[in-house]
Write a structure and sequence with these properties.
This protein has 79 residues and is α+β, with helices and mostly antiparallel strands. Strands 1-3-2 form a three-stranded antiparallel beta sheet. Helix 1 packs antiparallel against helix 2. The longest helix is centred in the N-terminal third of the chain and has 15 residues.
Length: 79
């Protein structure tokens, strides 16, 4: 494993969950304003994985948050 300056390593699951909830609260659904974008939190969930950083070491939740992550899948728009 080689971390980059775009790599986030979560040592506890609850910290990762709080991070996802914070993203959702900032960019999530706001039906009163007619804005619905829960995709950002969902995409961040998809970009994350679990990995041990050393052999037989503890598992961590890792995410690379860079421009490549933004291109990992398309949207529902036609064209």
């Amino acid at each position: 494993f080689k971390a980059t300056n775009n790599t986030v390593v979560f040592t506890h699951g609850h910290t990762w969950r709080k991070f996802l909830f914070a993203i959702y609260e900032r960019f999530g659904d706001d039906e009163e304003k007619g804005e619905v974008d829960s995709f950002t939190a969902c995409d961040t969930l998809v970009w994350s994985w679990v990995q041990a950083l050393e052999e037989d070491g503890p598992l961590y939740i890792i995410a690379d948050l860079d421009n490549g992550s933004l291109m990992n899948e398309g949207r529902f728009e036609e064209g």
